[in-house]
Amino acid sequence: MPTTGNTASTGTGTGAGEGAVAGAGESWTALRHLRHLLDLLDQGAPAEQFAPPAAPAGGPHLDEPDAAVVADATRVALRIRRTLGQHRRREAELAALFDTAGDLARLRDLDAVLKAIVRRAKLLLGTDVTYLSLNDDEAGDTYMRVTDGSVSAAFQQVRLGMGEGLGGLVAETARPYSTGDYRDDQRFRHTTTIDGAVTEEGLRAILGVPLRLGTRVIGVLYAADRTARAFPPDEVALLSSLADHAAIAIDSARLLDETRSALVDLNEASRTIEAHSDAMRRAEEAHDRLTDLVLRGADITDVATAIGTVLQGGTLIHDADGTELARSGNDSGRPSARAVAASRTGGRAVSADGTWVCAVLAGSELLGSIALTGRPDLGDADRRLFERAGVVTALLLLQRRSVAEAEDRVRGELLGDLLTGAADPASLPARARRVGVNLDHPHAVFVLHSATAPRQRLLAAGARVAHCRKGLAGLHHDDVVLVLPAERPGSGGSPGSPGSPGGAAAGLADELGQALAGPVTVGAAGPVTGPGRFPDAHAEALRCRTALRALGREGTGAALGDLGFLGVLLGDHTDLIGYVRRTLGPVLDYDARRGTELVHTLRTYFDEGTSQSRAAETLHVHVNTVVQRLDRIGRLLGRDWQRPERALELQLALRVHQVRHPDDSAARPPA
């Protein structure tokens, strides 16, 4: 029994042992399959390698339950593989997104940011083309901004209206859209322009996701292939994540550009403010400098020089009549009346032929003008400075006018007292000295008349002359009268010579005629010394001026002595000897020196009716002798001695001479 039992037991044990061994062998085979799956998962093997391997020939086979377990484990392993693959892909995508975010964060230029976005989208999704459009809020559409992989010029310039095509729909709805084949997808509003651009580029599968900043869509990011295919959700999510990063980078670049622009504008504003401050400082300094000149009593020439120095140009100042008052570094003439009128009307400096002109105004009254040369490119700041100089010049001219008016009143009162003789003669020299006039020096009196210039303009022009020559000017009985220093009697000033009153009157007529652009008639008398003689001198100058006008000699100047016998008749004191000397002096002197008979020959010539032959018979000489004597007389008296007016003067002088020296002709033996 024991043996049997042992045998049985052994047999049983043997059977059991064999069963156990067999079971152990089968279990080991199943475990081997499971280990094989784990190894495949660890190696990241492709899915086709996860299929159960075929059993070896003559080897043990899995029973049905174990085969089911192995098949189920294989399915689980494939799911694990897919999950691990998804995690690895997601991890790679996240790493790529982080890298993209880092790359975008380092970029500062908007164009560089946009190009980096579409390039990274192409790398991440592996599509043929990626591109990006930005919304145009003013136009109400979205336009292609940058592409990568595109070959069509039309596609790169296409614009999509809101809701048009896939991109317009994404921009309008702020939702991602994709199509496996755009040309056959009727979900989108097709247009000829969009379809033509897509066809030219050869695109079929398109994915578009919005670029959003909060709730606002700023554009669309696209990925597209030239073959039809579907875009799985993970690619949509990946491109959307990239779009979110891109939107932030675009906004950052835009803000950076705006900041740069703001800094540029700020710097420009700072420079403008600095330049304005410099201009204001220069203007204040110039205004203070010019005002100080006026307050210190500087003349108009000092102001012109200061203006030219400050503005670095030539300066020319005229009064309202166009008379030059001062110039500095300038050789040009006075500005045109049109430029002065334009500046007066506009109240601003104007440019005319490269010269800046500023009217000098006191309210609406024109006081004069300033011309600035050498600065055709005058800037706004210097232009305002030039206009401010006009204000200061107006202040100076007003001040000068006030002083001149006060001085003119004093001078006018003095002139009136001199010419009327009503004031105490003893007080007049002291009053004259206070205005710079020395009555101990001989003075001539001049009475002026102009038929074309107003009396005030004539007075102003005469006053300038009187001021320059330390004389007096004023109105007396509605006539403009000047009292000017003259040469002393016996100083060599013969009638009509520049130093005589008549010569001075002729010079005044020319000078004032040029200044007033019209004829000025000047009658002169004098010179006189002492206050008591001025009334008579004035009366004589007035008669001379009247005679000049009556004789048709408007625009000339003379004294009564220059009018010949008419002057003798009009004069208060008949100076016949002086008249004869003025008329026949050269011939009388020649006869006295040479012992000739030229005066007698001349008288006989006139007595015989200017007949040379009859004069020769009367003189008992040959006619050639008369011709020679008359030729000599012509050289002594001048070529015009036979002119009717001159001949009359000569005959009158010969009669006066004959009356005063009757023995000269009566006792003369026949020649």
Shape, per Cα inertia axes: rod-shaped
Major pleated sheet: 6 strands, antiparallel
Oligomer: single chain
Class per helix and strand makeup = alpha+beta
Query: How many helix segments?
Result: 21
Beginning-to-end CA distance, first to last residue: 225 Å
**Strand proportion:** 15-25%
* Low-pLDDT residue intervals, each spanning 5 or more residues: 1-27, 489-495, 665-671
Q: How many beta-strand elements?
A: 16
From the alpha carbons, calculate the radius of gyration and give it in angstroms: 61 Å
**Which sequence of strands runs across the widest sheet?**
3-2-1-6-5-4
Helix content: 55-70%
Q: Kindly state the mean pLDDT as a whole number?
A: 77
Structure characteristics:
671 residues, disordered N terminus, 21 helices, alpha+beta
Written account of the structure:
It is a single chain. The protein starts with a helix and ends in a 5-residue tail after the last helix. 57% of the residues lie in helices and 15% in strands. Mean pLDDT is 77; it is low at 1-27, 489-495 and 665-671. With 671 residues, it is of the alpha+beta class. It has helices at residues 2-43, 64-106, 110-125, 153-156, 165-173, 192-201, 233-295, 300-311, 337-346, 380-420, 428-434, 455-468, 501-516, 534-550, 565-570, 576-594, 598-607, 612-619, 623-637, 644-660, 662-666; strands at 129-136, 141-148, 159-161, 177-179, 205-213, 216-225, 314-319, 324-328, 350-352, 355-362, 365-373, 443-449, 472-476, 479-485, 521-528, 557-559. α2 packs antiparallel against α3 and α8 (300-311) runs antiparallel to α10. It is rod-shaped, with a radius of gyration of 61 Å. It has 21 helices and 16 strands. A hairpin with a 2-residue loop joins β9 and β10. The strands form three sheets. A six-stranded antiparallel sheet has the order 3-2-1-6-5-4. A five-stranded antiparallel sheet has the order 8-7-11-10-9. It has a five-stranded mixed sheet with strand order 13-14-12-15-16, with helices on both faces.
